[in-house]
Design goal:
257 residues; alpha+beta; globular; five-stranded mixed sheet; single chain
């Protein structure tokens, strides 16, 4: 009888262990599926034409040095540049809005940067009947230093790769919320301008903006385009920009030969 009791106890214990093992295995597939769906949900399209690079930062700073522009140190220097007209206000319009969180004293940029901003937003509105949004414009060294503490992807506030926002020649245009067609339109608008060295754009991934440094050459180029078009519309279309770029590239190749 004792042997029989031992065998019976062993069988019951074995069945209990097997039941626990089956219960554990039945839960695991559900956990796996949840993790898979979580990863898939966070997949985001990102194939930029203007990928950020060290070289791009060097180009932006070379333009600042060519124009002999100061890197704005603080609010006092910022106010002086506003008063002198070296920095102009970005004014919202039918085609352009400003991010509410951008402080009022930093809604400024260089005159030629504002020209570019107004030109591209006007054409964008004609195409999509939606506004472009400015997320950032001029910054001071103090502001950039604070930004670096909270955002490891922010550009330095000094050196050959310092942020070009410090000179007031750069704006960030919001890319988040755009459709793929809208992003591609903006890219194609900018391509010929970059080819002519009139702008130096980057498509930032972490902030989801078009970071665009506008060269001082844009002012003269735009004025020449306006004189050619008078009395027609003065804002160049994306197709016209590409035609001008192709002509200049063709001329440059001819000179080389």
């Amino acid at each position: 009888m004792r042997i029989g009791n031992r065998i019976f106890t062993f069988i019951v214990a074995s069945m209990a262990i097997c039941a626990q093992a089956l219960a554990i295995n039945s839960v695991r597939p559900r956990t796996h599926h949840k993790r898979f769906r979580h990863v898939a949900f966070h997949h985001i399209y990102y194939h930029p034409v203007f990928r950020p690079s060290h070289e791009s930062l060097l180009i932006q700073n070379e333009e600042i040095d060519r124009l002999e522009l100061p890197r704005i140190e603080d609010d006092e220097q910022l106010e002086e540049l506003k008063a002198s007209g070296d920095l102009v206000a970005i004014v919202p319009s039918e085609a352009l809005r400003i991010a509410p969180e951008l402080p009022a004293n930093r809604r400024y940029c260089r005159p030629w940067t504002l020209d570019f901003l107004n030109d591209i937003s006007t054409e964008y509105y004609k195409e999509f009947h939606q506004q472009l949004q400015v997320n950032s414009a001029v910054r001071t060294v103090k502001v950039q230093a604070k930004l670096r503490k909270h955002n490891r992807n922010a550009a330095p506030y000094e050196g050959d790769t310092a942020s070009s926002h410090l000179a007031g020649i750069t704006v960030d245009i919001q890319r988040r919320g755009m459709t793929r067609k809208q992003v591609q339109w903006v890219e194609q608008y900018m391509v010929p301008l970059k080819e002519m060295s009139l702008i130096e754009p980057e498509e930032e991934r972490h902030q989801w903006v078009f970071h665009v440094m506008v060269s001082g050459r844009y002012e003269d180029w735009r004025e020449a385009q306006m004189q050619e078009r008078e009395p027609r519309e003065t804002v160049p279309s994306a197709a016209e920009l590409r035609t001008v770029s192709e002509r200049q590239n063709s001329s440059a190749q001819g000179d080389g030969n």
